[in-house]
Amino acid sequence: MYPDYPFTSRFVSLSGHRLHYIDEGRGPVVVLVHGNPTWSYYFRKVISLLMATHRVIAVDHIGCGLSDKPQNYPYTLGQHMDNLQGLLDHLRVDRYSLIGHDWGGAIGMGCAGRQPQRIDRMVMMNTAAFRSTRIPLRIRVCRWPIVGPLIVRGLNGFARAALFMAAEKRLPRDVARAYLAPYDSWRNRVAVYQFVRDIPLQPGDRSYQTLVEVERGLDALRDRQVPLMLAWGGKDFCFDEVFFREWCQRFPRAERHFFADGGHYILEDKFNEIAPLLARFFSEGATSGSTVG
Prior knowledge:
Order of helices and strands: EEEHEHEHEHHHHHHEHEHHE
Radius of gyration: 17 Å
Distance between the termini: 35 Å
Oligomer: single chain
Number of helices: 12
Strand content: 15-25%
Shape: globular
Number of strands: 9
């Protein structure tokens, strides 16, 4: 049904809701954590790349992808972190590496920071796991009462706009359809809207204190010298070069790859360049290096 996504769908019940995930391959575990408004489909090529040598687990957050989409649910950063941890506990995963994109960075790093001794390696792509007041007007508008729900849930404006604004390369029609498929109605777009609402910008926002805790966890991961690779698209309208530099400052030993002509959906724009970097990073270990181009 979805191009380049031939994987077996699996489900776990968390607090009465079915969470969908992919679990392919055998070997050291790599956990893939998506953001908004994508789903595990975003990582389809990474799964195919790594499953020959690793056990690859890709989650669909509750409300996203092929997971259940309850209407009255605490769609918060902390809840998504708890769900990810619940999945890993269900699968009895003790040690793992992590790849995070967009919201997946904060969610994944939030889990990692709670138990940094369980983390082998990390890859962050166009994401943040620390506080910032930077938010594009086009996203801020989607947080406004009345207007936000109409745009995001009624017109599917957030997910549709991302197809054109988040990738520098034009997505094939069937790929674009696959990204939108789980979000085909007002009800099914509940998490897309709630993710936007949940962006913590100032004290008092519902997930602000959780993000503070995630930020503190970064220090523990840095102090343990957990290898980190950054793969970044320079034309990201949201997580721009300022965020990339912040990661570099917080993790001065990080391996850095900055693709000046790549967009927010960096795996759509630059997968052919990133694939050998990931294969080497997870098979041979992290080494100092950089890519700019």
